[in-house]
Amino acid sequence: MTTRTGEIIETQGKPEVDTATGMTKYADVYGYHRVIKTSEIVQTTEGASKLDW
């Protein structure tokens, strides 16, 4: 994912958007579950590895 500030966040699998909360949840390269405001994301791509929620 790429953020508005230009930060590139590597993810495992495809990030999931929760339209009810306006947040996107993803797993970072270490497998930790994270959330970020969907409005802060400019581009989303699927990570190279998969993580089962």
UniProtKB/TrEMBL annotation:
PANTHER family: LIPOPROTEIN (PTHR37011:SF2), POT FAMILY PEPTIDE TRANSPORT PROTEIN-RELATED (PTHR37011). Signal peptide: none annotated. NCBIfam families: lipo_YgdI_YgdR (NF033216). InterPro entries: LSM_dom_sf (IPR010920), YgdI/YgdR-like (IPR010305), YgdI/YgdR-like_SH3-like (IPR047807). The keyword Transport does not apply. This is Lipoprotein YgdI/YgdR-like SH3-like domain-containing protein. Residues 1-46 form the Lipoprotein YgdI/YgdR-like SH3-like domain. The keyword Cell membrane applies. Keywords: Cell membrane, Lipoprotein, Membrane, Palmitate, Signal.
